[in-house]
Amino acid sequence: MLGFDMKVYENVSLKNFSWIKIGGNCKKVIELENSIELVEQVKSLIRNNEKFELLGLGANTLFSDNGIDCTLLKLKSNNIKIGIEGLDRELLKEKAQKTKKVFRHEVFQNSKITSGYRKDDLKYDEGNAEDILVEVDAGVNLPYAINHLIAKGVTGLQTFAGIPGTIGASIYNNIHSNDSLLSDLVYSVKALDKSGNEHILRFDQIDFDYNHSTFQRDDLIIVSAVLHLKLGDKDRALHASIEWTKRKSSQPKNSLGSVFHNLDKETQQRVGFEIASAAYIIEHKLYLSGYRVGDIMIPEQTPPDQMQVNKNIFMNMGDGKAADFLTVMKKVRSEAYEKFGIKLKPEIFFKGFDPEEIEIFFN
Ligand SMILES: Cc1cc2nc3c(=O)[nH]c(=O)nc-3n(C[C@H](O)[C@H](O)[C@H](O)COP(=O)(O)OP(=O)(O)OC[C@H]3O[C@@H](n4cnc5c(N)ncnc54)[C@H](O)[C@@H]3O)c2cc1C
What are the helix and strand counts (H, E) for the chain? Predict the structure, then answer.
């Protein structure tokens, strides 16, 4: 135990901290219970010149079989403050007009191939409901935040129900669900730079894109975020969140979610595919459904009358290794490149690998 009663684990297997249960050992994992502990701990590690990495729920991180050679800060928190001051309604209106939409579902709508579950029936406009600001620590579990807020009559996050993760990592990666991006709901973010200086960035000072944010580009640590949500229809939001969770549960849990980004519009137009999804390419263009190395496997072909399983989600069938995960990724990437000239980009994060092991995915 350290000051603040933080839990410290020494020489532990990272499998215990990874959603997909893969990874070697870590010499020290410090579990932090709130944003105050996070700031204190980061500043202290910087002062002592100690290397560290951040982790939320580990639902998007592949750890090396050799583990990681630095301290891991695992974020947890239940801190949610409803009704923060400082809402600028005019600015929010401007934001709503500029909001970028993810294009992939427009494409699905024109296609005979579906993404597996219905998405259009649960969408509704909450535009007329009153706005409210809510402050959430980076370590807060997203499903917990959704349920807690709906119970208090605060809505808007329901479209992200069924996605495992923490708020901090979900903003860092700007998660997507249906045709919404989490950035649509971000008002401001408190972050630390790698020298330990604090910054508060309002949404118009943050670059967000599909699976990307300023925080990745500038190597910033998200401490907490203010979201702009609604005092909306609680029953409807609850129904939507339960339904999304049920529908998403058809996708493999023993995974890190989607492994590769969908195609950008330019690449999709160049190759002329009817849909941009990496899952579609793996299944219908590369015919790699069911491809397996060791205990890492791409889902098998699903019969057409059953709920379709996303082939861009690689599963750990038991004792999966990071090396095998990389081999499956390399197979998909090299075939997509050889056959169609497509360079698929990873949507997951890597920790503990030698740069040479993963550089192929970034060139
Ligand atoms: C079954 C399943 C379904 C999924 N479905 C979806 C989906 O529908 N849409 C979608 O977009 N994603 C989806 N994902 C991916 C994943 O749930 C999200 O990316 C989620 O945001 C990961 O959160 P985490 O806390 O687990 O991140 P982690 O894996 O813990 O961390 C991810 C990265 O963020 C960094 N990080 C963590 N916290 C911070 C912080 N406070 N400041 C700065 N950096 C930080 C970490 O260092 C790491 O590089 C799915 C994953 C699974 C397993």
Answer: 11, 18
Report the pLDDT value the prediction gives residue 302, as an integer from 0 to 100. 85
63 and 352 Cβ atoms separated by less than 8 Å: yes
**Ligand 1 midpoint to CA 222 (Å):** 13
Token output for 353: 């690998």
- 141/78 Cα distance (integer angstroms): 8
Query: 348 alpha carbon to ligand 1 midpoint, in Å?
Result: 8
> What does the alpha-carbon distance between residue 347 and residue 264 come to, in Å, rounded to a whole number?
13
Residues 225-234 pLDDT 10s = 999 999 999 9
Alpha helices in 159-264 (DSSP H): 167-172, 214-217, 234-248
Write the pLDDT tens digit of every residue in 299-324. Answer: 999 888 888 899 999 999 999 999 99
Atom of ligand 1 nearest to the CA of 160: 8
Query: Residue 106: its pLDDT value, please?
Result: 43
Q: How many residues in total does the chain contain?
A: 363
Tokens of 305: 């009358």
Q: Which structure tokens are listed for 357? A: 């092991």
- Single-letter amino acid code for the residue at 307: M
Token pair recorded at residue 61 = 């991180």
Identity of the residue numbered 198: E
